[in-house]
Design a protein that fits this description.
Layout (H helix, E strand, L loop, with lengths): L12 H4 E13 L2 E7 L10 E3 L8 H13 L5 E8 L9 H4 L5 E10 L11 E5 L15 H16 L6 H13 L11 H10 L4 H8 L20 H15 L16 H12 L5 H11 L2 E7 L9 E5 L1 H6 L15
Helix pairs in contact: 4-5, 5-6, 6-8
Length: about 325
């Protein structure tokens, strides 16, 4: 039997592949879900990011914490790995910053949560309402007008333009599922599905930018209605939003985003800000009080206006006992 060859291929993976680290740090400010962004030499926003240095970073998590603090002066608390992003061509606009021109960039994304937006004192760092990037995801005041006026018509045009008899019904079914059309339910966790469909249909700036190979933002059907991000950072953010929305139902992560003491209305507004639609007040109150996650502290809030309300805190014993449980999130009720 001949020995296996030991000579590596002439094209070395190590010289053509770089690992980058991205962080989605989310917090709720009043009734606005915020994400920490940076501007590094460009007009579009980015998530905090940077290359993984195996000589300096013992783990990916150490590396991403370092990059966030360096670029924003904000330290991360709760953090979990989100997803690995490695599509070909995703790195073109930021190759020099993430790992060098000509390299394939694989980004390891992280989701981090905070009880409030900490001061981002570094130049170019800013907390942004995540609905400024995804206005169609916020149903708290009813169905967003941008859906019926611009997005759904644009997607139906894309469906009609599908090549071949088989592709058209497939596209139509994907649109219906992602956007809850024709009797289907809107599912808040499908944030990424909706964004990727809009990308395929050429409705977002990133799609046209990637087609031309230019880092410059090009006109898109949505115009200025939704802010773009560099590279595929808006895709990473959509992934994080969908993950967080889904996770609320089976893990008590919401309490990583609350202050030490809060009213039930404040808790409700925080959850509503994340999932993007409103709940029935009494149903939410009953559900949370029965969850075992919270306990009264025996004091009342002292608001500048309005009536005082009972204050609650996280019941740490209940949290440990029910670590595999989440909140009862109702379905969005929409009117066709």
């Amino acid at each position: 039997m001949s020995a296996m060859p030991t000579t590596p291929p002439s094209s070395s993976i190590a010289t053509h592949l770089a690992v980058a680290l991205n962080a989605v740090l989310a917090a709720v400010d009043g009734e606005k879900p915020k994400v920490l962004c940076v501007k590094l030499g460009g007009e579009d926003f980015a998530l905090p990011y940077g290359p993984f240095d195996p000589e300096r970073h013992r783990t990916f998590e150490i590396g991403v914490r370092e990059w966030v603090e360096r670029q924003t002066n904000v330290s991360l608390g709760y953090i979990e790995q989100l997803y690995t992003f490695g599509d070909e061509g995703r790195e073109a606009p930021v190759a020099a910053l993430e790992g060098g021109a000509g390299q394939r960039i694989v980004s390891v994304g992280y989701l981090a949560l905070a009880p409030k937006p900490a001061e981002a004192s570094a130049e170019g760092a800013e907390w942004r309402d995540w609905y400024s990037f995804f206005p169609w995801e916020d149903w708290r005041d009813g169905e967003p007008a941008i859906l019926r006026e611009r997005i759904i018509p644009g997607l139906m045009k894309w469906v009609k333009e599908a090549p071949g008899k088989i592709n058209r019904p497939r596209r139509h079914a994907r649109v219906n599922i992602a956007f809850g059309l024709e009797g289907l339910q809107w599912e808040e966790e499908r944030t990424l599905d909706r964004y990727e469909l809009m990308y395929e249909a050429g409705l977002v700036v990133e799609a046209l930018r990637d087609q031309t190979g230019s880092g410059d933002a090009q006109p898109a059907p949505l115009g200025e209605a939704a802010a773009p991000m560099i590279s595929d950072h808006r895709r990473i953010l959509a992934t994080a939003i969908g993950r967080l929305r889904g996770k609320l139902k089976y893990r008590p992560v919401i309490f990583e985003m609350t202050p030490p003491e809060f009213t039930l209305l404040q808790l409700q507004r925080t959850v509503e800000a994340i999932v993007g639609f409103s709940f029935h007040k009494q149903n939410f109150r009953r559900s949370v009080e029965k969850s075992g996650f919270i306990k009264p502290v025996g004091r009342m809030s002292q608001p500048a206006s309005g009536r005082p309300a009972a204050l609650f805190a996280v019941d740490r014993d209940g949290l440990r006992e029910r670590a595999a449980s989440g909140l009862a999130i109702p379905r969005l009720r929409r009117q066709e």
